[in-house]
């Protein structure tokens, strides 16, 4: 029709096509699968919790497990950088067992991180610790996700009570495929992929925390 232009629509997918599609699922097993199912490699996860509750230890345990599954992992420590505390944290989880798969980025700015991720054989999993130190706003975050669709971004946030702290982290929470709240050395996940069982980060610490509440 004169005076009009055609609108190009996204390709529709039938139910049968969807059921036959293959996705890059992470083969979680055991406690990890019980916690969040078998998520796909891509998108974003958000971890948040108060200081001293096991947030960093949990994130590093997760990094090690992903590395054991064969994924290359980059942990961008924007808050602590390459420090004594990070050295102790890496040692506590036995990260030396996967030292060929995990790298620590020493407070690498997000713009430099992007350059790294554009290279061949760059890490498939990227941890940003933390949202508050990254300088990201929600638009920056969505642009990062859009450019690197095949990367899994795990973002760590400070907490405001039982919620992530700050506007950006709260917005990321709604977008994240897996949302993980850490409290009292236990991690509680709300995942699009199933799971739902709490994960114990440190048994003695979790028991001591529960006893304090009695």
- Trace the largest sheet across and list its strands: 3-2-4-5-1-8-9-10
C-alpha termini separation: 74 Å
Number of H- or I-type helical stretches: 9
Subunit organisation of the chains: single chain
Structural class: alpha/beta
Count the strands? 10
Helix-strand pattern: HHEHEHEHEHHEEEHEEEH
* Gyration radius, rounded: 19 Å
Largest sheet: 8 strands, mixed
The average pLDDT is: 94
Uncertain residue segments: none
Hey, roughly how much beta strand do the residues contain? 15-25%
Shape: globular
What is the helix fraction of residues, given as a range?
Answer: 25-40%
Task: Describe this structure as you would to a colleague.
The protein is built from 9 helices and 10 strands. The chain has helices at 15-20, 30-36, 55-68, 84-92, 110-117, 131-134, 138-147, 167-175, 203-213; strands spanning 43-49, 73-77, 102-106, 125-129, 152-157, 159-160, 163-164, 178-183, 186-191, 199-200. The longest helix is centred in the N-terminal third of the chain and has 14 residues, at 55-68.
